[in-house]
Every structure is written in C-alpha cells, then in structure tokens.
Design goal:
The protein is of the alpha+beta class and 94 residues long. The chain has helices at residues 3-14, 19-26, 30-42; strands at 17-18, 48-53, 88-93. It is 35% helix and 15% strand. Helix 2 crosses helix 3. The radius of gyration is 14 Å and the shape is globular. It binds zinc ion.
Length: 94
C-alpha cells in the first residue's frame, strides 16, 4: 500500500473529511484523492468500514442519501440550486 493511501486512512480514521480537505492536507490534487478514495471505499481494509457522510444542499437542506458517488453533486434535484456541500468520508472500526 502506498504511503499516501496510508496517510489518507489515518486522516479518515481521525474525523470525517471531504476530498477537498484531504487534497489540502496531503498536497495532492482532488482528482488524485478521489482516485484513492474510490479504492478505499471498495477495500477499506480488514476491520474497517468506509463511511460516506452525504452531500447537503446549502439552499434547501436536501440530503443526498442515496448517492454513493464520491464527487460533489452539481445540482439539487429539489430546488435546482448549485451550492451543495461536498460529501465527507470517514473510516470507522467495525
Ligand atoms: Zn436544494
């Protein structure tokens, strides 16, 4: 496992983080971070569970519960606004 992915796992075990936060903390592009996150989502490691804290529309509060993609949704299906928080991710011990 790369040291980058190991560092990412440690950050996600501390507290939930968005892909943007991870990119800043790890000095990587958000695209690179999302690539590693998609691997962690599929294979978080024995004893770990990958959690997604859903994106939320900042305008009406709609929560994107059913969404399992890792990127930020572009538009709210209820109010059509485009100001939407990024989903956040965490690793929890099973
Ligand atoms: Zn909305």
């Amino acid at each position: 496992m790369s040291t980058l992915r190991q560092a990412m796992k440690e950050l996600l075990a501390e507290q939930p983080r968005s892909s943007l936060e991870l990119s800043q903390l790890l000095s990587q592009s958000e695209r690179e971070v999302l690539d590693h996150l998609s691997h962690l989502a599929r294979a978080p490691g024995p004893g770990w569970r990958f959690q997604i804290i859903p994106a939320v529309c900042k305008h009406c509060g709609f929560i994107f519960r059913k969404r399992d993609r890792l990127t930020r949704p572009s538009r709210c299906p209820l109010c059509q606004h485009q100001s939407i928080s990024r989903p956040r991710f965490a690793l929890e011990k099973k």
